[in-house]
Each structure stands twice: as C-alpha cells, then as structure tokens.
Design goal:
This protein is of the alpha/beta class. It has 27 helices and 22 strands. The strands form 4 sheets. An 8-stranded mixed beta barrel has the order 13-14-16-17-18-19-20-21, surrounded by 6 helices. Strand 1 and strand 2 form a beta hairpin. Helix 13 packs antiparallel against helix 14. The chain is elongated. It starts with 15 loop residues before the first helix and ends with a helix.
Length: 835
C-alpha cells in the first residue's frame, strides 16, 4: 500500500488572522485543486468507460457477427458440390446471397486497421462462392470441388483479417482498462493528499470552524474508501452544500455513478471473457497461439483433444518443442518425424514463409493414420496463431465422392462420365502412338423383361454379374464401363481395323448370353454389340459415340444377339428408318392401312371357326411393307395404340357381316395395355360395330404379362367376363411361358410355328407339341398349331392332339372380299385330308 508523505507549512511571522487567512486561502486552494482534480479524473474515467462500452458492446460484437456470417457462408458453399437436387442448390444460392449481404452491412463498421482490406477480399469471396454454386448447379462436381478449394483460400484470408481486427480490439480493451485503473489510483492519491493537507491546515487552528468540515471530509473519505473496495451501496452525503466540499461531494457522487457503471462494464467484460473462452473451447477446430520464442500463449480444449495432450502441456508458456516431443512419443506426431530429427510440420518446413509473414495451410498425416489440416497466421513481432482441424473423414468423403463421380454405384465399374474421360484420353494416346482403338457399344437383350418381371433388385444383381463377366472377358489394358440402364461399353486398345475387333465382340456376346443364376432363378438374356474403330470411323469422342450407337441400333434391328461394325452405309440405313417413321405417320393420317384375314380350321368339326386379322400396308413407293417391319417401328414411335384401335374397329366391322359361327381374332400389343384404357376402347368398338363380344378373340404375347402388372391381369379378366376369348400367341418362345399359364387362365394357346416347322425332322418337337396339347386340355384350354404348311404338318399336329390349325396349307391371308372363298377352300381341304 502506498503512503502519503505529510508536509508542514513554514512558520510565518504574521498575525494569527493573517495566518488564518493564509491557511484559509491555502485550504481553499487545496479544496479547489482537489475538486478540480476529482472532476478531471471523473470526466476522464467517464470517457474511458464509454470507450470500453463501445468497444465491447459494439465493435467486438460486430467482429463476432462478421466471423459467424463468414462461417455460415463457408458451410453453404462447401456443401453445394455434393448436392444432387437443383432446387436445393438454388436454395443454397439464395441463402449465400443473404449472408453476403449481411457481411457487406458489417464491413463499414469494422473495416479499420487490419480490416481495412476486408471489402475487397469480401468481393473476391462473393465471386468465388457464386462460381462454385454455379458449377454445383450444373452438376460439374469435379470443377465445383476445385472451385470450393479456391473459395476456401479466400475465406481463410477473410477469417485472418477478422481475427487481426479482433486482436486489435482486445489490445485496445486492455489499454483502456489499464488507463482506467491508473486514473482511479491517481484520483485516490489526490483525494488522500488533499484530505490530509486540509486537515493539517484547518484542524489545529480552528476546530470550531473546521469541525463540520472535518466530519464531512471524513464521511467523504469513508465513502471513497468503500467505493475503492467496490462497495457501491454507500451513500454520498453533503451534495446539498454549495461550497467546495459540496462540489467534492457532488464530484464523488459522479465518481460513484461512474464506478457503478465501470463495475457493471467489468462484470460484462468478465462475462464476455467467459463466453469467449467457452466459444474457444467449443470450437470445432483446435486453436493454438505461440510467441516469438515458440512458447504457448493460449489454446482451446479442442487443440488438446486432437493430439491427446495432457493438461500440463496446455499451460501458457509451454515450449513448442515439449509438445512436439510428447506427440512423437505418443503416436500423434507428424508421420516420419523423429525426436532427434530436424523436425517436420509447418513450423519447420515453412520457416521462410513465417519470416515473410505469409499464411500457410498444410495437411499433416499423423502416425495414428489421421489427417490434420493446419492453417496459421504469423503474429506481429514473431510467433503465430494456428487452427487445427481433423480432416480425416473429409478426405475420405472426398475420396468417396471422387469414386461416385467416376464409378457406377450398382456394378462398381466405370460410369459414363469416367468413360468419356477415358475416351478423350484414348484419342490423346492415338495422337502419340498412332495406334487406334475400338469401342464396343453393348445393349442387353430382354433385360427390361427381367427387370419388369422379377423387380429391380434382381435386375441390379443381373447387372452386377454382367459387369463381372465383361471384366473377365477383356484384357487388362481394355476398359469397361456402364453407360446407364442396360448399356455397357468396352474400349479395346491396340486396334487397327475391324478384323481385330470381331473376336472380342463374339466373345462378349457369348459370355453375356450364357445363363445367369440369381438366387434360385435361372435367367437367360442376350447382347447386341455395335463396334466402331478410332480414328478411322470417328476422330472425336462425339463422332465415335454416335457411330457406335448407329452400329448398335443396326445390330438390334438385325435380330439382336449379334454384332455390327460401323460402316458409313449404316447412316443411310438410319436415314431410311427415319423415312419409314415419317411414312408411317403419314399413312396413319391418311388411313391407308388395310386388314387381311387368315382362316383357322377347327380339326374336330372341319370348319373355320376363327379368322385372324393381319395388318397390311401398301406404300405408293415402297409397295407392300411387311408387318414385321412397320409394327416394331410403330411400337417404338408410340403409334401402335392408334394403329391397334384402327385394326380392332375394322376387324369388328367386317366380322359383323360374317356368319355367326365365325369369330375374328385381333392381335394386341403390350403397349396398348400400358397406355390408354384398353377395356373402354374394346367396349366402345363393340358398341359401335354391333359385334357380339363372344365373336371377338384377342391375341396377346407373353410380353403383355412380363411386367407382372395387376392392372393388366384385371383388364384381361374384365375382357373375358364380357365373353371375349383371350388367346396366348407364340407360346413356347419365352423363358417363362408356363408361369403365364399359372397367372392367367387363357381360353386358347397358339403354339409357335417354330415347333411346327421342325416336326418332320426333330422328334423332340413332336413331343413338345403333344405335351403342350395335353397340358392345355388339363387346364381347360384349346390349342392352335401355327405355321401348318404341309399335309405332314397337319397329320402330325392332329395326332398330337391339337384342336385347330392355321397356316398356308389351310389358307394364306386374304383380303376381306376373298375371305368367303378362302373359308370354303379351307373346309374343302380339311375334308380332302380327312378322306
């Protein structure tokens, strides 16, 4: 505690009155001086308190707001590349713009000192963030990720500028506190000295006059002492007097008010400090600060947790070398660093950058397998502040994202994006080595039927086996990719011409056509392959892909299960296909289609009971176009519903004029079940033409039932409930025909002509036809043998138990005007054979 030295006035040879006047003048001067000093220090104290309040409540708050806005903007931008929803990305862009707007609102408030360049850096941050969000909206994940890295660098720069501004404000806060404490101490000394002087001058000479003054001074002294002890509940008396002591009392009252406000500010500062420490300890990143001698200044709890540091190494003043040594000994050091070595990590590797005051981000691979991202900012006068973040999972996630961007999630082979990259690279290799390559464009035959019949899990399992077979069928230098759906591609290296591609194309078709076992299911599919050789048949990736697709299209059009090498003539074939589609649309508008009818002979009665309606198209230039050509085209174009409704209406109209004992059979496409309301269409046509429902027979193929659609089964049931006959056409050609007999009780089964054609030469065909006929009788169904062209065919199917026959032996398809004669000839042939 400081002591105040007392002093005595010199003895003056003056009268007592003069001395009293002198002493009174000195006392008055002392009081005036003390009051003036008190007012001065009180005024200065008030100014300091206001500065501290402004710093704490306004400036530091704005700095923290800026820091929170920056972190929010970083989270928005850095999360955008992994988003796959455009609406979500648009929402993120709106949020990012709102945050940037708030940040621009704070820039004028804190942009002083170290934060002076904040506006320019913020503009750069806005540009980088918008560019990253734009790339994410275009699903350019790789470019977006690179852009996010550039954006993060700018964000760290802004964060550093904000941190510098915060450090400057804290330094000002400490200086203001010291100045405030010094003012208080100085004021206390002035009051103590002034009080003593006043007591010594006035007390001994005029107790009566000064008694009251002494008491007032004593009360004020006690008040000041209690205020010095932070007792703000003390009452300041004597403020009612209009003399010097009254002024002191009023000044003391002001000082008390200022002291109360100062204590309140100190409590707020202490609360702020506790919150600041809480915020530091709850940061997701570790923070450490070292001085120029590499001794710890401050760190948060996360820093210790990241490296497993004990408490005694987190104490301020701990040398960095002790922390490094402990980390190496306990397995959390930088990989490859040794206690006796020169040292690894950014303080050692980046000494020159530290000396230049540059900010350095580094990624440390630790001995325990983690990856720690460290970024630091050198401090004025030496030392640094560093942020530490565990980036292990982020790096793993980046690796997963990188893999997802290049590999198909179902088959685990390259995806279309990776295929395009490899294709571009292959063209680069051609330019260097002058050795070409080939692309085999593969489409799985009947895969959609498997997917619709057995469900997507089975389809995915099938795709996985297809990918495995492709990998096993190619060389190590070749490249396999799934392009999407049931399309795959193989890049065959070291190819000069088509002859070198044929062995691989045949091998791919063969291995992909072998049976698959998916659980207990045995599934058979096929493959069609289009082959193109680069650079002979395409000098760019786009040309090569287009030509490969044209070759694949030709392979599928050629009956599937084959390969086609691209030739320029195929482009003309494609143009011809497009011309056919245009002609087909024109024919639909002009109603130039017609129906021919082929009688079906009932073997038991020897009469024609049904005539099948067959579509015919006579083109003014092409001539007669086969249904095998234009029906698939109509299905692919989506015109089959209109064409099918025309055939149904025309057939019912014609049949309404036939004898009552003859039905008309109309073929239905699977597309007609999937699109529109087939039941209502049939009802409308029957009502319009007046044909009785029992005289209509509808023929479907197994493709109608491939999807296992309850709505399709319900439609068939409703049609049969009307009295319409439902027949299963081309029976025996699919891989699950028996399953269809179980799912729907057909009225009639039409045995495919491929079995009838081989009856004379293959005994197993006779057995199959007989088995189908027996099965149908057991199920209460009738059988029709298609493709009967000879008497031998007729006798064999009759002996096998078939109920009816259809084919050129009975009658060819004829126009409706010649149908009566065809029916009569068919019955006559039946009698001749029977005789």
């Amino acid at each position: 505690m400081k002591t105040t030295e007392c002093f005595h006035l010199p003895v003056m040879p003056l009268k007592i009155a003069a001395r009293l006047y002198i002493l009174a003048g000195l006392a008055l001067a002392t009081v005036v001086l003390l009051s003036t000093a008190a007012l001065h220090f009180v005024t200065r104290t008030g100014e300091d308190v206001r500065d501290i309040r402004k710093l704490v409540q306004v400036e530091l708050s704005q700095v923290y707001d800026m820091e929170l806005l920056l972190e929010r903007h970083r989270r928005i931008v850095e999360s955008a590349p992994v988003e796959l929803d455009r609406e979500r990305i648009a929402h993120l862009r709106d949020r990012a713009r709102d945050v940037i707007e708030d940040m621009y609102g704070n820039v004028p408030k804190i942009a002083s000192g170290p934060g002076a360049a904040l506006g320019e850096t913020l503009a750069e941050l806005t540009t980088q963030g918008e560019r990253a969000l734009d790339l994410a909206a275009e699903f350019a994940q790789e470019e977006a990720i690179k852009q996010v890295a550039a954006y993060s660098a700018v964000a760290r720069k802004i964060q550093t500028e904000i941190a510098s501004t915060k450090i400057e404000h804290m330094s000002r806060f400490e200086r203001d506190l010291k100045r405030l404490a010094a003012s208080g101490n100085e004021l206390t000394r002035w009051v103590e000295v002034g009080t003593l002087v006043a007591l010594l001058l006035i007390g001994p000479f005029s107790l009566l006059v000064t008694g009251q003054i002494v008491r007032r001074l004593k009360r004020m002294t006690q008040t000041m002492l209690r205020l010095a002890e932070h007792d703000t509940s003390v009452h300041v008396s004597g403020t009612r007097f209009r003399d010097e002591l009254g002024d002191m009392a009023r000044a003391l009252s002001v000082f008390k008010a200022n002291a109360i406000e100062l204590l309140s500010q100190q409590r707020e500062i202490q609360t702020l400090n506790r919150r600041f420490k809480f915020a530091l300890d709850n940061m997701s990143r570790g923070l450490s600060m070292f001085d120029s001698e590499r001794r710890l200044i401050v760190c948060n709890a996360r820093y210790g947790e990241l490296y497993g540091l004990p408490e005694h190494l987190l104490v301020p003043g701990t040398p960095f070398s002790d922390i490094r040594r402990w980390r190496i000994s306990n397995g959390t050091g930088v990989a490859g660093d040794t206690i006796d070595g020169p040292g690894k990590g950014w303080p050692f590797e980046s000494r020159a950058l530290i000396d230049r005051g540059e900010m350095i981000p580094l990624a440390h691979d630790l001995e325990d397998g983690r990856i720690i991202q460290v970024s630091f900012q050198p401090l004025d006068g030496g030392g640094w502040v560093a942020l530490h973040e565990d980036a292990t999972e982020e790096r793993r996630q980046d690796a997963r994202i990188e893999r997802l961007a290049h590999f198909d999630s179902v088959t685990n082979i390259a995806n279309r994006y990776f295929f395009k990259e490899r294709l571009d690279s292959a063209f680069g290799d051609v330019a260097k080595s002058e050795i070409g390559f080939a692309v085999h464009w593969i489409d799985l035959d009947r895969f959609k039927e498997v997917n619709d019949t057995f469900g997507h899990p089975t389809g995915d399992a099938l795709l996985q086996q297809v990918a495995a077979r492709l990998n096993n069928a190619v060389r190590a230098d070749d490249f396999v990719a799934r392009l999407g759906g049931d399309e795959f591609a193989v890049i065959q290296t070291g190819v000069q011409g088509n002859a070198e591609t044929e062995p691989l194309a045949l091998r791919l078709i063969r291995v992909l056509s072998e049976p698959y076992m998916i659980g207990a299911l045995r599934i058979e599919i096929g493959a069609s392959v289009g082959v193109v050789v680069a650079p002979l048949q395409g000098e760019t990736a786009e040309d090569l892909i287009r030509n490969a697709d044209i070759a694949l299209y030709q392979a599928k059009a050629s009956g599937r299960g084959c390969h086609v090498n691209f030739e320029p003539a195929l482009i003309e074939d494609l143009k011809a296909r497009r011309s056919l589609e245009a002609d087909l649309l024109e024919a639909l508008r002009g109603e130039v289609f017609d129906l021919h009818y082929q009688p079906i002979l009932d073997l038991s009665s020897g009469t024609v009971t049904v005539c099948e309606a067959l579509m015919r198209w006579k083109h003014p230039v092409r001539g007669f176009v086969s249904p095998a050509v234009f029906i698939p085209v109509a299905e692919e174009m989506g015109a089959i519903c209109e064409l099918g409704e025309f055939a149904l209406r025309r057939a019912c109209t014609d049949a309404a004029h036939w004898p009552d004992g003859i039905k008309v059979a109309v073929n239905l496409s699977a597309v007609q079940f999937a699109e529109g309301d087939l039941y209502q269409t049939v009802l409308a046509v029957l009502a319009e033409t007046g044909l009785a429902p029992h005289r209509l027979e509808l023929e479907i193929t197994e493709t109608v039932l491939m999807r296992d659609d309850a709505a399709t089964i319900q439609t068939l049931v409703r049609l049969r409930d009307l009295g319409i006959t439902i027949a299963l056409d081309d029976f025996g050609t699919g891989f699950s025909s028996l399953n269809y007999l179980r799912r729907f009780p057909f009225d009639k089964i039409k045995i495919d002509q491929s079995f009838i054609r081989d009856l004379p030469s293959r005994t197993e065909c006779v057995a199959i036809v007989r088995a189908i006929a027996d099965l149908a009788k057991t199920l209460g169904m009738r059988t029709v043998a298609e493709g009967v062209e000879t008497n031998d065919h007729l006798q064999r199917v009759a002996s096998a138990g078939c109920d009816a026959v259809q084919g050129y032996l009975i009658s060819r398809p004829v126009a409706r005007e010649a149908l009566a004669g065809a029916i009569a000839n068919a019955c006559g042939r039946a009698h001749a054979v029977a005789a």
